[in-house]
Amino acid sequence: MKKYFQVFKLGIHDALVYRARMVVWFLHSVMWILVLPFIWLSIYGENQTLAGYTKPMMLAYFFFIPLIESITYFHVEHEIQEDIKNGNIVNFTLRPLSYTLYQYIINQGYKCIGIFPPLLTICFLFPFVKNTLAFPTPSVQLLWIIPSVLLGGAVSFLISSLIGMVAFWTTRAEWATHLWWMISTFVGGFVGPLEFFPHSIQTIISYTPFSLFIHTPISILLEKIDTPHLLKQFWVGILWVIGLLIFNKVVYRRGIRRSEGIGI
Amino acid sequence: MKTSTKYWKVYKRFLENSFSYHSQYRSDTILNLILNLSWMAVVFLAVEIFFGNTTLLAGWTRGETYILTLFWMISDELCIFFFSNNIYTLSSKIIEGDMDKLLTKPINTLFFVSTQFVGLRSLIRIFIQIFALVYIIIHFQITFTTLNLLLGVFFLFCGVLIQYSFMLLMNTLNFWFEKVDNINNLWDIAQGAGKYPIDIFKKSFRILFLTFLPIAYVAYFPAKSILGKISWIEVLIIPCITLFLFLLAVSFWNFALKRYTSASS
Q1: In terms of CA atoms, which chain A residue is nearest residue B201?
Q2: Which of A24, A38, A182 faces B201 most closely, judged by CB atoms?
Q3: To probe the interface with A, which of B35, B170, B195 has the most A CB atoms within 10 Å?
Q4: Contact B46 A35 (CB under 8 A)
Q5: How far, CA to CA in Å, does B86 sit from each of B91, B112, B160?
Q6: Are A24 and B180 in contact (CB under 8 A)?
Q7: What's the pLDDT band for B265 if we cut at 50, 70, 90?
Q8: A21, A212, B50, B137: most buried by Cβ count inside 10 Å?
Q9: Is B196 an interface residue toward A (CB < 8 Å)?
Q10: Of A9, A4, A1, A61, nearest in space to A33 by CA
């Protein structure tokens, strides 16, 4: 445990060293909330409610995206791809720690610091927007958000890590990164609440864990999801985590056997 | 040798190098093409989702919004073709000290770092997008004059030059701040707003997108031109802004370059 705690601290140090980089990532997610609400408000026109969302709810949906994103989204694929390309990953076979767990914990350390910019922004903006946005009323139901973001984060990390490991087989794996980005942002709920999607697409998404990235946690905050639906989402998420964990182990083992450690 | 001939010869060599590079990764090229087509489908699906709930988006019809979206895609691909890959790697060149080597070359450093790699793959995608544009024009029965078309194409290239200038301005910051390579992701997201009519935004945002964050020039004005919605004042102002931003970016680059201290020996 002690060694992983050191890795966690390393993640915190890393985040503090590259502060400018972290702020840019934050601005990156803020950009979304600056653009998309305007599109949706334009669509609302004179209507007060669309697909069960009032205007204040829709604005709140986008307001919380940077915070939820800072917890659930992992971008480890590039780091893993680099470790594979420059042979650094072979060094991990000699160390008494799991490479996947190392990546997860070091990124959690980074996230501990990375959560502050969106959190502080929300606290700063709260007095100005409290009457415009639909804020959640404190209730026990809100506690569901904890397992929701943990599951979303685990799925996001495992998929991101798998995409990184594509580099074991191909020297150029950017296409996989782009594919992951495209799917996760679109069906994760970045464009807007999934209730606005065509019904057939909604059905497909309900069997995937992607809604746990953004849509489900924010639906809990906005009290837009009932317990049976939430439990179904959790079960789907848990099954995906188990499946992805097994798949990750298999891919890592097979990949590391192929790795020649060029450049060590 | 005349300067222009010399630079053309260098650029031709860059083209050849890029072609041989892409030839090595044929399967990757095909995968990228499939991915790009999927991405196009996703963008169109988003438009469909928006128009599933309304008939007009800030006064723009579905067909007009598709035109705008396709102009935005073509503009993005032109950037990838000419310079995006090069600007994206500028950060690592500065941090890892690769600039030392480039500064010793008997050629303008900015020209070298901006054009070294040509994104040839974009050409295929541009053809597909032009094909989609023609289909949308026919399907939605959109009419335009030759002058509007020429203005649209001209402003499209103005938009590309504005994007280059803005990206250069941001990436030049790497001379002072380490590891802000993700600043390009920020621009990617910001210019993503360019695929929607800027009329949807509040006045303050519209001013921002016309000045400090020049997103409006990426596709909005080219699309407006082809649809005959552009005013003569805009026709006169856009080339001036393009020139101003380009000169500003080059001056900032030259200023930063003088303060460059090598990162390695």
Answers
A1: A38
A2: A38
A3: B35
A4: no
A5: 10, 9, 15
A6: yes
A7: very low
A8: A212
A9: yes
A10: A61
Residues of B in contact with A39 (CB under 8 A): 50, 57, 196, 200
Q: Is B97 left (phi over 0), alpha (psi -120 to 50) or beta?
A: left
Structure tokens at B232: 């003569």
Range from A178-187, B115-124, B220-229 carrying the lowest mean pLDDT? A178-187
pTM of the model: 0.81
Distance (Å, whole) CA A198 – CA A122: 31
Q: Which comes out higher in pLDDT, residue B42 or A263?
A: B42
Give me the residue from A27, A41, A196 closest to B49, CB to CB: A196
CB A68 within 8 A of CB A149: yes
Residues of A in contact with B22 (CB under 8 A): none
Inter-residue contact B194 to B220 (CB < 8 Å): yes
Any chain A CB within 8 A of the CB of B190? Answer: yes
ipTM tops the 0.85 cut? no
Alpha-carbon gap, residue B113 to B136, rounded angstroms: 37
10-residue stretch averages of pLDDT, chain A, 264 residues long:
83 77 70 78 85 90 89 88 85 85 90 85 84 82 91 94 88 77 85 89 89 92 89 93 95 86 59
Angle at B118 between CA B180 and CA B70, to 5 degrees: 85
Rounded CA separation B59/B201 (Å)? 12
Residue with tokens 């450049």: A263
Structure tokens given for B7: 């630079």
Whole-number pLDDT of residue B189: 75
Q: Which residues of A touch B196 (CB under 8 A)?
A: 35, 39
DSSP assignments along B195-263, one per residue: GS-GGGS-HHHHHHHHTTS--TTTTHHHHHHHTT---HHHHHHHHHHHHHHHHHHHHHHHHHHHT---S
β partners of residue A53: A50
Which two tokens mark A9? 């601290």
Distance CA B251, CA A129 (A): 41
Among B27, B53, B58, whose Cβ lies nearest the Cβ of A50?
B53
Token digits for B21? 């590079």
**Average pLDDT, rounded, for chain B:** 89
H-state helical runs in chain A = 2-17, 19-44, 55-72, 77-85, 88-93, 99-114, 116-129, 145-165, 174-188, 199-206, 215-221, 227-258
Q: How many whole angstroms separate alpha carbon B80 and alpha carbon B75?
A: 9
Which chain A residues are Cβ-neighbours of B185 within 8 angstroms? 24-25, 28
Query: 10 Å Cβ neighbour count for B135?
Result: 12
- Rounded CA separation A151/A157 (Å): 10
